[in-house]
Write a structure and sequence with these properties.
This protein is an alpha+beta fold and 381 residues long. The protein is built from eleven helices and 21 strands. Helix 1 runs parallel beside helix 4, helix 1 packs parallel to helix 8 and helix 8 runs antiparallel to helix 9.
Length: 381
């Protein structure tokens, strides 16, 4: 049986490989790095993704290493007051995993790798692809020279700078937000500055909004970086320490390695060209507010695995159409809505926003619907 060739050994590529492996479909995964990426990057796993992990036999390991978040909170930075709190218990009847799990993606990929070890190839950089009605061919640059592999299909799960997408000449249109995000991993007790602070918090501020995420071994604080701020200045230790002291009212903290990243909303013009398909960030990227990007990519893998396993042309077309539509109408819509709420500056609009969130959280029916949407379970409303 001719294997499926997967480009990229990130969470999307490995999830697709695992799903196909369990369906008895041979796979070969190629990664240009010498090992799995150590970058923490995305860290949020929503309930439907956890349901997929259960299907793929890794849920126990993932839950054992992750931090289960039972509430979603919104705060005002200036007043140090909670605006709204959404309790995941409201969706306990909708999913076996009524919580949001925080765990760096680099930990999850290492949990996915062992059963796939024999079919994952590192130090393989894709340089060319060909395809026709009978199959595909991928050419790689490796330390031992060029190598050629044949397969039934090629799936580009190789990230936002996807080589597969570029070799196909596909447009990747959308927008880049003017703000950037400063990610500061740290050790700190933020409850000294925000009494009663929860594990996942969106903190409103007209000048510098913040997102606070508690992971198993570290707290991630995401700061808004304005367009006119220099990255070199922002990343100076004294600059980051000043931001943290202002946030924490001079409470103690210990910094880890910070990073800055730009934020985009983009989608490929198509997710399928013959026997070549795109998934995850290679196909779509979105504002990370809400933690839906990686999850959406894993959901791509879940649907695509079924279509590839059946080798059904109509199902492959459905995958390309449905997942592209979902990325635009659901994921990008919700993440942009979350971001838009964060950046409101007008005082009257801020008060109206806070009242809207408070009323939403106070109504159990509407709060459940909101949590289902925020958890990527909107179809269960």
């Amino acid at each position: 049986m001719t294997p499926i060739i997967i480009i990229g050994a990130g969470p999307v590529g490995l999830c697709l490989a695992r799903a196909l492996q369990l369906k008895g479909v041979p796979v070969q995964v190629f990664e240009q790095l010498p090992e799995l990426s150590p970058e923490a990057r995305a860290s949020t796993f929503h309930p439907p993704t956890l349901e997929m992990f259960a299907e793929w036999g890794v849920i126990d390991e993932v839950l054992a290493q992750g931090y289960q978040v039972r509430s979603l909170e919104y705060w005002e930075r200036a007043t140090r007051q909670r605006v709204a709190k959404f309790d995941y218990a409201l969706i306990a009847q909708d999913t076996p995993y009524p919580f949001r799990l925080q765990l760096p993606q680099s930990r999850v990929t290492r949990l996915l790798l062992p059963p796939l070890a024999d079919c994952v190839h590192f130090n393989h950089t894709l340089i060319a692809i060909t395809h026709d009605a009978s199959g595909v061919t991928a050419t790689f640059k490796t330390p031992g020279g060029a190598k050629i592999f044949e397969g039934a299909f090629i799936v580009g799960a190789d990230g936002s700078r996807s080589t597969v997408r570029k070799l196909l000449g596909l447009k990747f249109e959308g927008l880049t937000y003017p703000d950037r995000f400063l990610l500061v991993p740290c050790e700190a007790d933020l409850t000294q500055a925000f009494p009663g602070l929860g594990p996942v918090n969106y903190v409103f501020d007209p000048e510098e909004w913040i997102i606070i995420l508690h992971l198993p071994e570290v707290v991630r604080v995401v700061f808004q970086i304005k367009p006119d701020e220099s990255e070199g200045v922002v990343l100076r230790a004294e600059s980051i320490s000043a931001r943290m002291r202002k946030l924490l009212d001079n409470a103690p903290f210990a910094l880890k390695t910070p990073s800055i990243y730009s934020v985009h909303q983009r989608v490929a013009e198509t997710f399928r060209v013959g026997r070549i398909l795109l998934a995850g960030d290679a196909a779509h990227i979105n504002n990370p507010a809400g933690g839906m990007g990686m999850n959406s990519g894993i959901h791509d893998a879940h649907q695509l695995a079924e279509a590839l396993a059946q080798n059904d042309d109509a199902l492959l077309d459905d995958y390309a159409r449905v997942r592209r539509q979902w990325a635009i109408e659901k994921v990008q819509s919700h993440t942009h809505e979350t971001y838009s709420a964060m950046i409101v500056r007008d005082e009257a609009e801020r008060l109206a926003r806070n009242q809207r969130y408070a009323q939403l959280a106070a109504d159990r029916v509407r709060a459940r619907a909101y949590l289902l949407k925020a958890s990527m379970l909107e179809e269960r409303i």
